[in-house]
Specification:
Length: 453
């Protein structure tokens, strides 16, 4: 669980770690060690180990002797010996595990050179320590500007203040040796403090700064990896990886440390394999290895006169052919020893649990029926639109204008005029303001043709 300053605020935005990675809950610490002996009590009369492990900024750890017999536990802030003055750090490990860690890192626990702890840090010590930490970031920006002015081929990656604020250590990386004597004088004038320059490698720089790797997790060197072993390109060849420097290089620009993680497994699997350059002699011609599957124990061979067709052989069959070739005998062909790999048909299933669809009980949606509209009047024939009747026999029809009803007859109301008035003010030239009403359309009278045969 993270400390209180790492939680989110009321508005939902993260607060960020105000302690700059120095909280006492060990949630922000780098390279922490789980104390699996913390719940075990010591035998009667056995004194606890008098050395503790103290962590400083960005995973820097050192061992100190508890000469004052202080009751210390993980997360306590203590004042330790420094040159000059004192430094402030956090206790990360106590008890018998410290003895194991000192042996692992080659530190003699009985040596008199192990520095000691002064006291537990007071509130005044913590305030001075926090004030010094707040100066580091603007100092780093100004220090890089001064290094550029001196035209030095170096990169200042980090600055670490001592706990009492009396000294600042500048960590830098460079490919060659750098003469920074004039630069130190400018640093002393600019920052008014004692300056110490320390060169680190590119891997140590990535471990101090931290970051996210291509795997999506935090860098191994900044979380748990304490020793940097050499990594060669042969590790990628044994694992049959493409020799692409962009994929094989880590954040530090060097080969990834994780290339060594599975190398031993690949080396054990390759012990039973013949050399990749092995040539098989047959009656059909010589065959050269093109590919191999380490964990399945298969090798792909192709004739020198036909590289397009590959033949799959198991390791034991390849060993038999090699043994025959050592006796200066030729096998008939690779087809006699080849293995036919049948590709399994992919299984069709709904999901991993083998269940059906979750919507299997839902009612299916009804399909919309096509709207069968009646035929439009315009598609009808003329005979359907105007029936052949004699208008004289209709009593309610005005004979002068058959489209209008006769107003003299009762219950014959005229049709309402729904036409909108024409308010068009854009009058064309040569037209009068009040246009005459158009003449009524003459009726089409269709009568029966008596002369029709």
């Amino acid at each position: 669980m993270a400390c209180t300053s790492c939680s989110t605020s009321d508005g939902g935005a993260p607060k960020g770690c105000k302690n700059n990675g120095t909280c006492g809950t060990d949630s922000c610490n780098k390279l922490t060690v789980f104390d699996w002996l913390s719940n075990m009590s010591l035998p009667n009369g056995e004194a606890p180990f008098d050395c503790v492990e103290v962590r400083f900024k960005n995973g820097r750890k050192e061992f100190f002797r508890n000469t004052e017999k202080l009751t210390l536990s993980m997360g306590d802030i203590v004042a330790t010996v420094a040159s000059p003055g004192h430094d402030i750090g956090i206790v990360t490990l106590t008890g018998e595990l410290v003895r194991i860690q000192m042996k692992k890192k080659g530190v003699n626990p009985t040596s008199n050179e192990v520095p000691k702890i002064y006291r537990k840090a007071s509130q005044k010590d913590i305030d001075i320590w926090s004030t010094a930490r707040d100066k580091e970031e603007p100092m780093k920006v100004r220090a890089r500007e001064l290094a550029i002015q001196h035209k030095l081929e170096m990169k200042i990656s980090d600055i670490e203040f001592q706990g009492d604020g009396s000294k600042a250590t500048f960590y830098y990386t460079a490919n060659d040796r750098v003469d920074f004597r004039l630069l130190i004088k400018d640093f002393a004038k600019e920052f008014s403090t004692r300056v110490e320059m320390k060169q680190v490698g590119f891997r140590q720089e990535a471990a101090r700064l931290g970051g996210i790797g291509s795997c999506g997790r935090e860098l191994c060197c900044s979380t748990w990896l304490t020793d940097f072993r050499s990594v060669n390109t042969s590790a990628a060849r044994y694992q049959q990886l493409s020799l692409n420097p962009q994929k094989l290089a880590g954040q530090c620009g060097k080969l990834k440390c994780c290339l060594n993680y599975e190398l031993d497994t690949y080396m054990d699997a390759l012990k039973g394999f013949p050399d990749f350059d092995t040539k098989l002699v047959t009656e059909k011609g010589d065959a050269i290895c093109q590919k191999q599957d380490i964990f399945k124990g298969l090798m792909w061979f192709a004739y020198t006169n036909n590289f397009a067709q590959w033949h799959i052989l198991k390791i034991d069959k390849v060993q038999e052919i090699i043994a025959e070739n050592k006796l200066k005998k030729k096998v008939s062909s690779l087809e006699d020893f080849a293995v036919e790999i049948i590709q399994e048909r992919e299984k069709d299933f709904n999901n991993a649990m083998g269940q059906e669809s979750l919507t299997r009980f839902d009612q299916p949606k009804k399909k919309k029926k096509p709207n069968k509209k009646p035929k439009i009047a315009a598609e009808r024939t003329t005979a359907e639109v105007t029936p052949r009747v004699n208008l004289e026999n209709r009593p309610n029809v005005n004979k002068s204008n058959p489209h209008k009803l006769n107003p003299n007859k009762p219950n014959n109301k005229p049709r309402p005029n729904n036409k909108k008035p024409n308010n068009n003010n854009n009058k064309s030239a040569g037209t009068s303001e009040n246009k005459p009403n158009p003449e009524p359309r003459k009726p089409i009278i269709i009568t029966k043709n008596e002369n029709k045969k």
